[in-house]
Structure to design on (428 residues):
């Protein structure tokens, strides 16, 4: 599967065409004359080249890592090894959550290039949410993906030696962890060159974040948790731009930030992006109230994502616990079983608290940091955009600093609902 011949080079269209033509299985999959293949570069992310290649018989997706951050340019170099970790993570996720990631067709370590099945007619979930679309399969699929990938890579499922070897296999992905550590947990709370926000409307709010010491303590605790808690193999960037959907399918893509970290980071990322879609929705209205049904669905989805994830994770723990954590020999008989079940519930409560905090961190970074999302960015009127963003930030600050006030997911969605029509005082 892996080919190491030749040195790294960025493959533009002609070179990619020749490369694919030299791989008999991919050539057959595409079909027809190679000169007739259509190659379209579609990468709209911040880091990589992504090509869609189509031939007479079918199509493929090709992803190549660049030696720098695409969003910024060559002034920000980035190791190509991230393509290796992405391939490793996709392979592991495919085994644990079959049918929920794209199929892998080819990987070239030297070129930092991976070929995957072409997902059609799937769309990026975030784009669908901006348009007010609802996805009925999403809850079941994303909760299965998270429960299985997180549980089966944790100490609850793995013997300690196997878990430590797995941590080591991903430990080299520290350059991408460093991006997270800076862009999510540090930069939005200080003056940083690459920060941006909806100015001048949010100038005062940006300044208040930089002076909010309670918030600085809360985000620093979350950063430490991110750096020092290798609980499970996490996707590391599980937002609605990394999820492709149809009415009947959900596929999780782009796990290049994968490493062994805190489970709540992945779950929190999903919830944060749904909450941002909720707050952005008012800014996409063409007539007052036209998106209320969609907004109701989004908050119901937030509730269901946590509740279903928790249920599935606990079911796996009860039936598949083969790890060295919580040895069953310490919990004999009915009394032991009852005590262990109480501890499982306490474990999930701690995981929920982490999830709430990480969701808040993911929200604030998308409004004041380097990389924003189209939920807010496509609101054309900057005043309206700032109102939607300020509502999201108000919820996020509460979730981070007053985490104890959020004991259940209904507390989170209830607080979001109350802020739907709150009018912030904006600068400018």
């Amino acid at each position: 599967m892996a080919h190491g011949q030749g040195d790294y080079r960025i493959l533009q269209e002609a070179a990619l065409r020749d490369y694919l033509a030299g791989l008999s299985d991919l050539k057959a999959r595409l079909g027809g004359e190679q000169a007739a293949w259509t190659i379209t570069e579609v990468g709209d992310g911040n880091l990589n080249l992504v090509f869609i290649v189509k031939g007479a018989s079918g199509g493929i997706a090709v992803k190549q890592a660049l030696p720098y951050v695409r969003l910024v340019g060559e002034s920000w170099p980035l190791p190509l090894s991230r393509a290796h970790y992405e391939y490793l993570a996709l392979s592991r996720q495919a085994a644990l959550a079959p049918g929920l990631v794209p199929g892998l067709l080819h990987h070239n370590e030297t070129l930092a290039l991976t070929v995957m099945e072409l997902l059609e007619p799937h769309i990026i979930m975030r784009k669908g949410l901006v348009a007010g679309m609802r996805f009925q399969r999403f809850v079941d699929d994303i909760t299965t993906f998270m429960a299985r990938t997180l549980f089966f890579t944790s100490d609850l499922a793995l013997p300690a030696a196997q878990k430590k070897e797995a941590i080591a296999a991903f430990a080299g992905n520290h350059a991408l962890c460093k991006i997270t550590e800076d862009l999510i947990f540090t930069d939005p709370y200080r003056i940083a060159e690459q920060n941006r926000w909806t100015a001048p409307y949010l100038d005062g709010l940006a300044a208040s974040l930089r002076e909010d010491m309670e918030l600085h303590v809360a985000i620093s605790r979350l950063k430490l948790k991110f750096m020092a808690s290798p609980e499970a193999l996490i996707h590391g960037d599980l937002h609605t731009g990394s999820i492709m959907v149809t009415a009947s399918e959900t596929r999780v893509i782009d796990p290049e930030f994968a490493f062994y970290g805190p489970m709540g980071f992945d779950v929190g990322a999903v919830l944060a992006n749904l909450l941002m879609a909720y707050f952005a929705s008012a800014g996409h209205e063409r007539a007052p109230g036209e998106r209320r049904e969609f907004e109701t669905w989004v908050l119901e989805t937030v509730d269901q994502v946590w509740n279903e994830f928790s249920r599935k994770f606990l079911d796996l723990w009860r039936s598949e616990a083969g790890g060295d954590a919580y040895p069953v020999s310490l919990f004999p008989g009915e009394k032991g079983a009852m005590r262990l079940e109480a501890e499982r519930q306490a474990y999930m409560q701690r995981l929920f608290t982490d999830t709430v905090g990480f969701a808040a961190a993911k929200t604030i970074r998308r409004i004041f940091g380097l990389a924003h999302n189209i939920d807010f960015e496509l609101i054309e009127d900057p005043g309206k955009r700032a109102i939607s963003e300020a509502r999201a930030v108000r919820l996020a600050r509460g979730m981070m600093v007053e985490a104890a006030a959020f004991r259940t997911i209904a507390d989170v969605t209830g607080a979001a609902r109350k802020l739907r029509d709150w009018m912030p005082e904006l600068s400018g």
